[in-house]
């Protein structure tokens, strides 16, 4: 075994990406010529452009087999297949890259996700860049380069590519010189970075019938114009040669001194070859079918085919190939083209190879001819150099110098992206200006977004290309920054839904919503003024848009106490009273609130008067009430099952004006009266209020037990005696009422006392006018009372009006008569919001704010139990906090003022924006009721 | 088959009723006659390419009065649009007066765009020709007064220049062939040299003729091909009787065009701003492309091999450089929302396809590549044109399909017992399918307001100037090496 002496004369197939695997030491010492081929290829060609070389060598090297098309390596920038043919002393390189459709498809596969984000323009510039690196490599390693075209026209897009490659090559020369210094090659090669200025030859393919085959052409040379010196395919070659030469000269891709340009074309040798043949791989089906057809058509004597009559010369030839290689299918070698043939690829290529192997190229033209450098390496050295250069071109650049070369390549190719970036950068200030045009000192998010949209539109109008997204985002960020940098409006929502118009600020020292501690402290202000009446309704005052519940529901009204209703009798609703002097708000998390609410609901049911067992034990006399109308509210389904309730009359309340209340009395041993409970601060046993923690918001059905608000959001006030109201005149001394709506509505209720023994006799004497004995009643156990009720709405402009039904504004007739009664009010849920009938530019939404009740002079109490559903369920039901219905004193004018805003744990429930009735916001029915008067007895 | 139903679902309703046999057409017209007020039936011009037609069909000008009219269903539309007056005169002389009167009442009572004609006058001897043959076109917005205009609808015999090839200057020649009606359809074509643009356009015009015969748009002659030169230069325009405006262009990025620039030291069109010829060539090609993308309803990108990635990139570059659709200054406030630019339909037409191209897997791969490449393009490249006879791989997915259509090489009629397996239904059948699909591509308005043909012409002229003067191209040109 003597490895040094043993010379391997085997042909070697290799791939440039794995050059180091080739054992170069055993290669022959012959000088070799390197021939490369690249170009575009159609999808069907499977990336193969070198079938002519295969044909010329008579071997299947690059084509692969049509039954099993070779996979293309897409990991490397480009797949370069190599073949060393020692016999002819040539190394062939076949570059497959993005220009080959098959390869492009595979690459698109592998970067599918990238393609979703980037535009093809960006992706293509990357693909083209890596392809160009591979091209640069073969331009530095080859003597002859074949450019394959799938058509018969020269692809002018190569001009830009060549120009780019040349400029990059010149930049790369110093780096390459460093790399090559260690190799035993001539100084010229080291200095130039390449063995010679390569010759580029162009190969075209044609399908056109007139170029199909020389033999056919010669046979139909009947036309007079056709009888020229050359066959058409030759004429086309010459025309293309002239065209290409002119174009390349004009674009200065080739110059007089070949060493100064990327490549050269031979001055007096053919450099264009047009073939009418196709790679077998393009149409294997057609090939096989033709074979089959031939078999079938001439089953008897296949060999006797008349060549002159044959449909296709090509077919015939292929057939013979098939016959030759029938027993050697995998190799699928093609017969070498007849070298003597006038128009053969082998002849075309080998004239250049022979020249290279003998004299070398000298493609300099012009007067001062300088000898061009040309060198043939040995295969051994070439493999080493190729490996080194490959690493330099394909690897990430290590030093700044090679990095600069690669980035030059990238930027030169990246025209579309550069254009787009340039364009977008130019337009960006324009768009920014559009945003900043006419900007107020501070403005809302909404305004900001509108302006931003405007700016984006300006941007979209002028900006182009793949960089659009990136710059649009930058524009967005710029504008956002500008806005946030001192132009932001506070926009804190008031409880009525208006936003604060001050610049971004803190409301107090310890404002949790704002992180920035440098912001000025100032109160919120929406500059919206509203006109509201006081608790009793006799005085109107303008108010600021409230930002806090206390201001909305308490402070404003209490500020008017001094002027108006401060001294009037009022029933107070339960509020928090501190015993220790230290109080803090309770922490209420939504989850907790929910759990609580479950509990509360259950407990509340129990605590409802006359509805639970516990209540029965404590109050011996329970007032079981029936309103003579169906179940008062859906909220309390258990109500129906309350055993203590005596059933009311079955008659429908809507049909009769009189309603019957049956008050059943039981033996009473306990002196504690329900009135005491409703009257004041005491609550039911189960709701013992905390004295250290208060409820931060308003009291509602889901508030935790045992917590009371700091202030009452409701107020119940007695204006005075019932004589204050005259049904003929209407309400008086209440400003703001829309004329004709200032009336209360009569509610006639028949009261039937079931416990006759207990009924006091004091009433026998006088009979108030509201209390008349019914026909059926014998001794005054059944009588009718007349109560006046008004449901008052108030709009932000201070307009007030009454409603006579859930969907109707009360209107007196022109003579001042009111024909309605209050049954629709008492028997239905009343809407919380109602469009104000006032005329104005913008229609306002009025809110149910007061309930007027004029109580009769009868031995019964009118009770109020207001509950408000301020938003669709599951939002809570608001109530003043009374544990049972509040009893109003007889023969008096009472006004219940409802909260101005309703705020739950999740924030305020805002009134609707448009003045349309809202279906879900209601004062729930069951607010009004009658209870027997009992306090005077005890 | 199940897949035929599937395809039917995907297929939009075709506007075009396939050409009928003469008998069928007669029946149609007879039904129409008694009820002149009936809603219009939309008939399209029948297709010529399914059978070789007489010379008179391809040269309508000469074939008016004296044509043999052996194939009335082919000839009818070309004749009638041109000389209705003449037809009526002839009709009054005709042997079937009943038909003629009903014919004229139809035309008058509709007072819209019905154009009727009779071949009776021109061919009284033929029994077929005695029946009036109606060519009914789509209704347009015009109400009165254009009966006269209609009757003078100009018929084009050959394409004329829209943009001349020398200096790329706008030509007004085509104006006389355009009328004031809004129902028209602009199709433009783009492609590299020798890919078959003119041939495809002739096919769409229905005037392709025989392989060796004359066709509407001149293709490269054999001699030109031998010299490697192009044929069409500038932009040619032809208006069909169906009011389809065809724009045939000079090849993109053509070596031959560049060679002409080099050789004849031509003053480089599009200004001298581009220092190098190759840059001027590229900008010029971009300008033509951008122009077509602006003024066409549908742009066909024809290639004769699949596929030049550079060309695909090139189209997208042109998309980027395309001038913005002008907004109406009168409705600035209203147009804030709809300042969206106009993008035409883009149809990828693979011409001169070979057997292998027609295999379903290859078509699927092509589709996939095109979809990938044009994924982020705003050009409407999916869903309007497809290969009807090739089943799509994933029927269940109902994925979008690219507007890819394959046309085979035109081949002479094959003689022999065993015809070759071609893998496709033949050039004529595919050509018909392509024409029908293209005609039924939904037409969106080019601008924010509807244009009439004449408006379109002015608009196109404005756009051409805009493209030529656009600073975008200048900027782009400066970046070229």
TrEMBL record, chain A:
Q: Pfam families of this UniProt entry?
A: Smg8_Smg9
What are the start and end residues of every segment in region (Disordered)? 581-660
Record field: compositional bias (Polar residues): 614-623, 644-659
Keyword annotations from UniProtKB, A to Z: Nonsense-mediated mRNA decay
- Highest taxon listed in the record's lineage: Eukaryota
Give the record's family classification.
Belongs to the SMG8 family.
Cited function: Involved in nonsense-mediated decay (NMD) of mRNAs containing premature stop codons.
What is the protein name stated in its UniProt record?
Nonsense-mediated mRNA decay factor SMG8
Organism source for this protein? Limulus polyphemus
TrEMBL record, chain B:
Name the species this protein comes from.
Answer: Limulus polyphemus
Query: Can you say what this protein is called?
Result: Protein SMG9-like
Which family does the entry's similarity section mention? Belongs to the SMG9 family.
Compositionally biased region (Low complexity): 100-110
Spell out the Polar residues composition-biased ranges: 114-128
Gene that specifies this protein: LOC106475563
Annotated region Disordered: the residues are 1-128
Q: Which domain of life is it from?
A: Eukaryota
Keywords, comma-separated and alphabetical: Nonsense-mediated mRNA decay
Residue ranges with Basic and acidic residues bias: 82-92
> What InterPro entries does this protein's entry cite?
P-loop_NTPase, SMG9
Question: Sorted alphabetically, which PANTHER family does this protein's record hold?
Answer: NONSENSE-MEDIATED MRNA DECAY FACTOR SMG9 (PTHR14270:SF0)
